[in-house]
Write a structure and sequence with these properties.
The complex is a heterotrimer of chains A (369), B (151) and C (203). Chain A is an alpha+beta fold. Among the domains of chain A are: 74 residues, no CATH class; 184 residues, no CATH class. Chain A is built from twelve helices and six strands. In chain A, a hairpin with a 4-residue loop joins strand 4 and strand 5. In chain A, helix 7 packs antiparallel against helix 9 and helix 8 crosses helix 9. Chain B contains four helices and three strands. Chain B has a three-stranded antiparallel sheet with strand order 1-2-3. Chain C has a six-stranded mixed sheet. A three-stranded antiparallel sheet of chain C has the order 6-5-9. With 203 residues, chain C is an alpha/beta fold. The chains are: A alpha+beta (369), B alpha+beta (151), C alpha/beta (203). Chains in contact: A-B, A-C, B-C. The interface between A and B is large, with 83 and 55 residues.
Chain lengths: 369, 151, 203
């Protein structure tokens, strides 16, 4: 039950003012610039772009600054901003095979065309805090090598040559992928729409679910076929020109997870694939996404549905952290009337309970005598 | 889709304009001295495009998420029409790019713009790409076989 | 490149404010069915389209709402280029699955039932038809009642299909499914949402 109330304007105004004050912190410390955030906290910026579902580094940096570094709050700000802009259309599907690769590793093949390219990775660091970074030390630019360049071939294409990996199936050129922004959620959801949902899903939630599949919940024997990070060209068809216009590049992380599959009534033994594609540099998210994608294909591949990561309704209804935080955090809003009703109910039940137990004690005593 | 040589040249120019920095573009434009009166046909206006990928990299398309873009269309006094669309929210750069596109409807002006504005920027962008490629290449693993086990 | 510029000129000069003002006019006209509302129609579409119809199209149609043109309007290449450019929407060849239809000659248009009617669950998935008529005041008077109408209201559009009355009654019977109409002429519009009931008049 809801009762409209009014009041608190002054308190709210002052709370906002206090928030601004605390956000700025000690005035003797220089204010953060957006350039500092985009350049030096770039992976946080990438997460806000990915889960905010909006590729715009500067807006994501502004959101992080405004949210005092609370990334879910920043994601919320970006999602809200998005709704204020008109949609001009959609891009041609990006070609991740033609990516300007900054990192590419495979766990399936040691020597593969293009090689294992480590790129700017945290892997192999010792996870020891570097006290030098308390200051602003001189940092060398990256080393360069000119003798080791060859096309970075997709691992899926290598596996495909043997025919041991599932192919893409028939692609209907007229097919328009559904858009979760514009279609009410209905299950079962197409794989295209599931991937859209996962791509903007909460990294922590997908990570935990992906982890659970490794530990035996919807086990799928995964191998990283390939993880690649880099920039892809974006093209948008403009009817007034009659061709697709290159509008710039975006950085994405792609993961092809390859899964051993012993076959089912619907498909022969082969390697199946789980796919992850997210904005920016986020290997953890892309890998977790590909594990979840594969788990959600259980029904399509004729596998038994035994665990939460295979349950579309469970995964897709709960992976969005803006929805999740909205529903969890709304509990702090006034529920005075609801609570009064519950309080009355619990008092009545308690009184009845005490009366019953009192009578029961009396009866027991009488029976004993 | 088949496009004509003319369209390819236009498209390549647009690719360079979309990626170059606003400052660099303005600087080279100022040197060219081709300032033109123009009227807006549409925009400049910021909006969204939905970025698409393909399932598994090569399969059915799906929507990944949106990106901000800015577009502009202008008409010059001689009636030439120019268009521009690029990632980000830089209205001035989109408008200038549309003016440049319109000017390039004239082959002589196009040749000058290509030589003095587009090509220098393209070279700079290519150098930056090559640097990144080489930096990535420096992180390539060269495996050495230490011991090969016998059956 | 003939007429490239003319085909693209004449859109909203200030898209946000222009679209808001036209949207407001359409909203008012929908809220008060069969009432003539002037639109501050700040567009100059290619000749076959009225300013009001052009303004309504620019305000309502966008990249997510494909549209259809009747034969009269589809004949004009300039108009098709203009609409695509200023709305960002795709033009479809058939009328059955579009969100908006622009009709230049309502007298010969396909029956209302041929357009998207929505579903019981999603009645909003229906078409809005923008019908350009020669006049809203000099035709045979039609009397309407229903939500948003105090007692009764009379509108006299000219150039509607011969059997419009029967078609509109059938449309009303499909409620909550059905199409909504925006009638335009010059700078004026009048709306007939599916909730407007046509009243049988004596004689």
């Amino acid at each position: 039950m809801y009762v409209a109330v009014k009041g608190g304007e002054v308190a709210i105004d002052n709370a906002h003012r206090l928030l601004a004050d605390r956000r700025r912190g000690d005035r003797s410390v220089p204010a953060l610039t957006l350039d500092q955030i985009t350049e030096q906290l770039s992976i946080g910026v990438d997460r806000v772009m990915s889960e905010g579902s909006l590729y715009d580094r500067r807006l994501a940096a502004l959101a992080i600054k405004q949210a005092r570094g609370d990334l879910i709050e920043a994601i919320f700000l970006v999602r809200a901003y998005r709704t204020t802009l008109p949609r001009f259309g959609h891009s041609e599907p990006v070609d991740t095979g033609a990516m300007l690769v900054e990192r590419r590793v495979s766990a399936c093949y040691k020597d593969l065309p293009g090689g294992q390219l480590l790129g700017p990775t945290f892997d192999y660091t010792h996870r020891l805090l570097d006290e030098e970074l308390e200051g602003d030390p001189q940092i060398e630019t990256g080393a360069q090598r000119t003798d080791a360049q060859e096309p970075v071939m997709r691992v899926a294409d290598i596996l495909d040559q043997e025919g041991l990996i599932e192919d893409d199936g028939f692609i209907d050129p007229a097919l328009e992928p559904g858009d979760i922004n514009q279609t009410p959620t209905e299950f079962p959801m197409s794989r295209a729409m599931r991937l859209q949902s996962l791509s903007r899903g909460d990294e922590g939630f997908l990570l935990a679910l992906g982890y659970s599949t490794q530990r035996g919940y919807a086990r799928s024997h995964p191998f990283v076929g390939e993880v690649r990070i880099g920039e892809v060209d974006v093209e948008v068809f403009m009817p007034e020109l009659g061709f697709a216009v290159p509008v710039g590049r975006v950085q994405v992380t792609e993961c092809q997870m390859v899964n051993q599959f012993k076959g089912s009534a619907k498909a022969p033994p082969q390697f199946t694939r789980g796919y992850g594609l997210v904005f920016g540099q986020s290997e953890r998210k892309a890998m977790a996404m590909s594990l979840c994608d594969r788990a959600l294909r259980a029904e399509e591949l004729g596998e038994d549905l035994v665990a939460a990561p295979q349950d579309q309704e469970f995964v897709l209804s709960h992976c969005d952290n803006v929805q999740a935080t909205g529903f969890v955090e709304h509990l702090k809003l006034p529920h005075y009337v609801d609570f009064q009703a519950e309080l009355g109910l619990v008092r009545t039940m308690r009184a009845e309970y005490e009366q019953r137990t009192g009578e029961a004690v009396l009866e027991t005593r009488e029976a004993a005598e | 889709m088949n496009i004509t040589a003319d369209q390819t040249a236009r498209r390549d120019r647009m690719a360079v304009l979309a990626r170059c920095s606003s400052q660099r573009l303005s600087a080279l434009w100022a040197v060219l001295g081709l300032r033109q009166a123009h009227t807006p046909l549409r925009g400049p206006e910021a909006g969204l495009v939905m970025l698409r990928g393909r399932i598994g990299g090569t399969g059915e398309p799906f929507n990944v998420g949106e990106a901000t873009v800015t577009r502009a269309s202008v008409k010059l006094e001689d009636g030439s029409v120019g268009h521009a669309m690029m990632l980000g929210r830089d209205h001035a750069k989109a408008r200038l790019s549309a003016v440049i596109d319109a000017l390039c409807r004239n082959p002589e002006t196009a040749a000058r713009i290509d030589a003095e504005l587009i090509q220098p920027i393209r070279r700079e962008l290519d150098v930056a790409d090559e640097t990144r490629r080489q930096q990535t290449a420096a992180t390539r693993v060269d495996f050495f076989t230490m011991v090969r086990g016998e059956d | 490149m003939l007429n490239e510029a003319t085909a693209l000129e004449g859109g909203f000069s200030n898209p946000v404010l222009n679209a808001q003002s036209v949207f407001r006019a359409v909203m008012d006209a929908m809220a008060k069915p069969a009432t003539i509302v002037e639109v501050d129609a700040v567009v100059t579409p290619p000749s076959r389209l009225d300013r009001a119809a052009g303004a309504v199209a620019c305000a309502l149609i966008d990249t997510d709402t494909p549209f259809w043109l009747d034969a009269t309007l589809a004949e004009s290449t300039a108009l098709r280029a203009w609409l695509t450019f200023h709305t960002g929407a795709r033009e479809m060849a058939t009328c059955g699955d579009v969100a908006f239809a622009l009709v230049g000659a309502p007298q010969t248009m396909p029956p209302l039932e041929r357009f998207a009617q929505g579903t019981q669950e999603y009645p909003n998935r229906s078409a809005t038809l923008i019908l350009q008529v020669p006049s809203l005041e000099s035709g045979a008077p039609l009397t309407f009642e229903g939500p948003g109408i105090r007692d009764r209201v009379v509108l006299a559009p000219r150039g509607l299909p011969q059997d419009f009355a029967a078609q509109w009654k059938a449309n009303r019977k499909r409620f909550p499914r059905g199409v909504d109409l925006i009638l335009t002429t010059g700078d004026a519009i009048a709306c007939l949402p599916r909730s407007a009931r046509l009243v049988e008049m004596e004689g």
